[in-house]
Design goal:
Layout: H1 4-17, H2 24-28, H3 35-45, H4 50-63, H5 67-72, H6 75-82, H7 88-105, H8 114-118, H9 125-136, H10 145-154, H11 162-172, H12 178-191
Helix pairs in contact: 3-4, 3-9, 6-7, 10-11, 10-12
Length: 218
């Protein structure tokens, strides 16, 4: 019987080789990534699908692509752009508040340290970790609902929320794989390991998956 750690590493090696496409943040990332764009995109993506968020971010960026421009913008103008992805009042306030803090305390630059990122309004651990991975190529494990669900289904962890999942994954997964976890599991979750109807027959991990607590994540 394969030991748990050996199985986890085998699954990670398979995941690393899979081509599920390119996620929103990876598309916005890369060597020339704008950390501010990654930060804003991640904040706006909360409770919204990537395919809906991407055009909103691009439209926003046509006119409001710096902390000063967002901070100085008429909230109604920002709300009009953000409206299609929902929670537009809250998200407008968050991106303006964090833009002002960047200007006041960080010279308009997105910080590259977790503690400083977490001090920004509307930035929790998932958002901070996404910025670290996709903007600064740092080792972190951003955990959203997809990563939480799939990590539990695969048997990597047995946890109740994304925050707990992040801490357990950091303990469980070798550091060399941290940066691929979000990208690969998010795309796997969007395309194959879906919340309600996972397409197990199309999954390269099917024979290794423990399918833990599937009903819990329906």
């Amino acid at each position: 019987m394969m030991m748990k750690q050996e199985k986890i590493i085998r699954i990670l090696k398979i995941l690393e080789k899979q081509d599920y496409g390119v996620s929103m943040l990876a598309g916005f990332g890369g060597l020339d990534a704008d950390p501010f764009k990654i930060l804003i995109a991640t904040v706006l993506s909360v409770r919204a699908k990537d395919e809906a968020t991407i055009p909103i971010v691009e439209k926003l960026w046509e006119k409001y692509n710096t902390p000063k421009k967002i901070a100085d913008a008429n909230p109604k103008d920002l709300e009009e752009i953000i409206r299609p992805i929902g929670f537009y009042n809250i998200k407008t306030k968050r991106i303006q508040d964090l833009s002002r803090k960047l200007l006041d305390e960080f010279n308009g630059k997105v910080p590259s340290e977790e503690e400083e990122l977490l001090s920004l309004p509307g930035v929790g651990r998932k958002v901070a970790n996404c910025v670290l991975v996709y903007s600064f190529d740092k080792y972190a494990v951003p955990v959203d609902v997809h990563v939480h669900r799939i990590s539990n289904r695969l048997g990597f962890v047995t946890t109740n929320n994304p925050e707990e999942t992040e801490l357990k994954l950091i303990e469980t997964i070798p550091r060399k794989y941290w940066k691929i976890v979000n990208e690969k599991m998010v795309l796997l979750g969007q395309n194959i390991c879906k919340p309600i109807t996972p397409i197990c027959s199309a999954c390269q991990l099917n024979k290794l998956c423990e399918k833990n607590n599937v009903k819990r994540f329906l």
